[in-house]
Amino acid sequence: MSEGxxxxxxxxxxxxxxxxxxxxxHVSLNIHPNEFFTLLGPSGCGKTTLLRMxxxxxxxxxxxxxxxxxxxxxxxxxxxxxxxxxxxxALFPHMTVADNIAFGLRMQDKPESDIKRAxxxxxxxxxMEGMAERKPAQLSGGQQQRVALARALVNRPKxxxxxxxxxxxxxxLRKEMQVELKRLQRDTGITFIFVTHDQDEALSMSDRIAVMxxxxxxxxxxxxxxxxxxxxxxxAGFIGICNFVKPSxxxxxxxxxxxxxxEDASFASGMLKxxxxxxxxxxxxTYRGAITHYLVQLDSGEMVTIAGEEPRNLKIxxxxxxxxxxxxxxxxxx
Length: 334
Fold this sequence. Notes:
This protein is of the alpha+beta class and 334 residues long. It is built from eight helices and 18 strands. The strands form four sheets. The chain has a six-stranded mixed beta sheet with strand order 6-7-8-3-9-10, with helices on both faces.
């Protein structure tokens, strides 16, 4: 039975002119078989370094990386049952689509009949049938992305690593490829480990997310967990918009940070029992299609953003009353 990937207190330190930098600081994770797992965080948080350690492209200074119980940290990249899709795709420009996909199989001296069959299956998997003889320059960005995925999946690795692999695409195509990546992961049953700084990508595709900050895992959980129940102020602020206010602004006791998501507050039209209520003045309205954002200056002086459908007859400088359900108030550590 597959045990999945176990990252056991791994450390990576880089030398720097100002001293040693601990890029990955005793990170431990259990990534389940057949899981779409995302490493999410800002630039410099250690997520790509950790991915490269799994791939074998960076050495492990301390700790272990176990795949189905075997420590793969000492193994060179080519001996690990892991493939990587990079941001640049790294396709060979002089080769056809079919030859790009077949490259790794030919390096393993597989029979040509097996290669031909595997390439056809990979092309079908990424919905690129009929494009086998094209060169990369003849493909769109989305098609190049699919070829890179087919090349990585053709020999059925146990784990597929994706390093910011959608960031080069335009917004519409990126949204389409998010759906395609999740479909591919589900259809193949391969564990995907996806690195991104884009919270929307992480929330829309992942089974679980590890939010990283300064080389450590700030929180591990489902998309719903990290969005609605952030463990720290960093997680709450990095994933989506969070309105942080003083507890006293919401009539609450305590010294920890409190906040709420823009969509979890509503403009009050009457007395609703059990709601947390606060008041302020509408200072700005931003129309965003189906959702409108409202900037409100509370009587405490704090600025908050509210998201929702546009109420009738609401205009800048109007006095407004906000209601927030108590169970939607975020309480987290500093």
